[in-house]
Design a protein that fits this description.
By secondary structure, the protein is an alpha/beta fold. The chain has two domains: about 5-55 and about 305-395, Aspartate Aminotransferase, domain 1 (Alpha-Beta Complex); about 70-300, Type I PLP-dependent aspartate aminotransferase-like (Major domain) (Aspartate Aminotransferase, domain 2, 3-Layer(aba) Sandwich), CATH 3.40.640.10. The protein is built from 14 helices and 17 strands. It has helices spanning about 5-15, 45-50, 60-70, 80-95, 105-125, 145-150, 155, 175-180, 205-215, 235-240, 285-300, 305-325, 350-360, 380-395, and strands at about 25-30, 35, 40-45, 100-105, 130-135, 165-170, 185-190, 190-195, 200, 220-225, 245-250, 260-265, 330-335, 340-345, 360-365, 365, 370-375. Strand 1 (about 25-30) and strand 2 (about 35) form a beta hairpin. Helix 3 (about 60-70) packs antiparallel against helix 11 (about 285-300). The structure holds pyridoxal-5'-phosphate (PLP). The site of pyridoxal-5'-phosphate has 15 residues, from helix 5.
């Protein structure tokens, strides 16, 4: 076993101190469990922030990565590579979109989509169409472009000036209509706000946004970096709402833990970023593509999207029961598929609660500052959900 204490000392000396990790060293994972350097086991209901779609040490994912690593890791976009071509076809089929561009992270996929929106209208001679309408409490990433569309002051503070974006209340179509103008290139929306607190779009909202965008002649852009790849029960959450955006971003769960990002577009937008206007050295690498292909194969073969629906409802019901049982500390349960949250009462401090839960053997995160977030691997079992809920129940009972 590694000497955890000495590693923590080294971390405190050399790692850039922009995060607040606890003194805890995970050494390996198996299925939906992680193990620390003392051998203690934890139920993983955060999945590396909604990334580990197949859990840990999944045989097919491990095999796909090692087999590809032994063939070729990297080529750059100077040349085609087989896994990437197959991945492009697979994500387009699953999502109903027509073109796929690959990047290395969510924020990078967002940059591609924001550049696409601008360049689309530039190519039509509409140089003033650059404003984006986005939503309060949205989160789209940490690069300057992605920050500009993120609707949360705590992430934006100190990084201005950012490009022109109008933020309106999530779910309010009239506010979107009121913000429209000749300079609007796109409306950008998360179908379930993730970092904002796991807030599903109200009924009909995404359909209405599609109509508003069509009437205004602007694009409808979807950020499915957290919701995508089956987490809400359909490959895209937009498909669950019966709506097709003009472009959509994916990342997080797509390659089950290997860094990847993707922007999928309609055929109409295929000419909007011609050669030379956008690119990346690592995007679409054979390694990341092989990993993503393995994830998508298992997703389909094991019907994980159906599981996300049924086990998601099961988890949702269990969280509702927790709210009923602990009304003084838990106010509401909400979410879609295996993307769920419990809103905590104002007096409950989220951070200490997370470490109490960790000590009790469950890994969760906080979303929106005040909600406990549950985003387990899509391979989670009903028994593991029961185990997690029982632990959370016990911990809430001590508050
Ligand atoms: C909806 C959404 N968009 C964008 C991002 C940014 O992704 P990344 O951290 O990979 O840059 C995130 C990350 O949490 C996200 O949840």
């Amino acid at each position: 076993m590694p000497d955890a204490t000495s590693l923590f000392d080294t971390a405190k000396q050399y790692l850039y101190p922009n995060y607040r990790q606890p003194d805890l060293l995970f050494t390996h994972g198996e299925g939906c469990r992680l193990f620390d350097s003392s051998g203690k086991s934890y139920l993983d209901f955060y999945a590396g922030i909604a990334v580990s779609t197949l859990g840990h040490n999944h045989l097919e994912l491990v095999n796909a990565i090692s087999t590809q690593a032994a063939k070729v890791l990297h080529l750059s976009n100077y040349f085609y590579n087989e896994p990437n071509i197959k991945l492009a076809a697979a994500v387009c089929k699953l999502s109903g979109m027509q073109r796929a561009f690959f990047a290395n992270s969510g924020a990078e996929a967002m940059e591609a989509m924001l550049k696409l929106a601008r360049r689309h209208y530039f190519a039509q001679g509409q140089l003033d169409r650059h404003r984006i309408i986005a939503f309060d409490k949205s989160f789209h990433g940490r690069t300057l472009g992605a920050l500009a569309v993120t609707g949360q002051p705590k992430y934006r503070e100190g990084f201005g000036p950012l490009s022109t974006v109008t933020h309106v209340a999530y779910g309010d179509v009239d506010a979107v209509r009121g913000a429209l103008g000749q300079d609007v290139a796109a409306i950008l929306v998360e179908p379930v706000q993730g970092e904002g607190g796991i807030v599903p779009a109200p009924e009909g909202f995404l359909k209405n946004l599609r109509s508003v965008a069509d009437e205004a002649g602007c694009l409808l852009l979807a950020d499915e970096i957290q919701t995508g790849v089956g987490r809400t029960g359909t490959f895209l959450a937009f498909q669950g709402a019966g709506v097709r955006p003009d472009a959509v971003t994916l990342a997080k769960g797509l390659a089950g833990g290997v860094p990847i990002g993707a922007m999928l577009t309609s055929e109409e937008l295929a000419g909007s970023l011609p050669p030379g206007t956008h690119g990346t050295t690592f995007g679409g690498s054979p390694l990341a593509s092989a990993a993503a292909l393995a994830v998508l194969n298992v997703l389909e073969r094991d019907a994980l999207m159906k599981r996300a629906q049924s086990l998601g409802s099961y988890l949702g019901d269990a969280l509702d029961s927790l709210v009923t049982k602990h009304p003084k500390v838990a106010l509401e349960a909400r979410g879609l598929g295996l993307m769920r949250a419990v809103e905590l009462a104002a007096h409950v401090e989220a951070r200490p609660l997370l470490s109490q839960l960790r000590d009790a053997g469950v890994l969760l995160t906080v979303a929106g500052g005040t909600a406990l977030r549950f985003t387990p691997p899509l391979t989670i079992s009903q028994a593991e959900i029961d185990e997690c809920v029982a632990i959370v129940d016990g911990v809430l009972g001590t508050l």
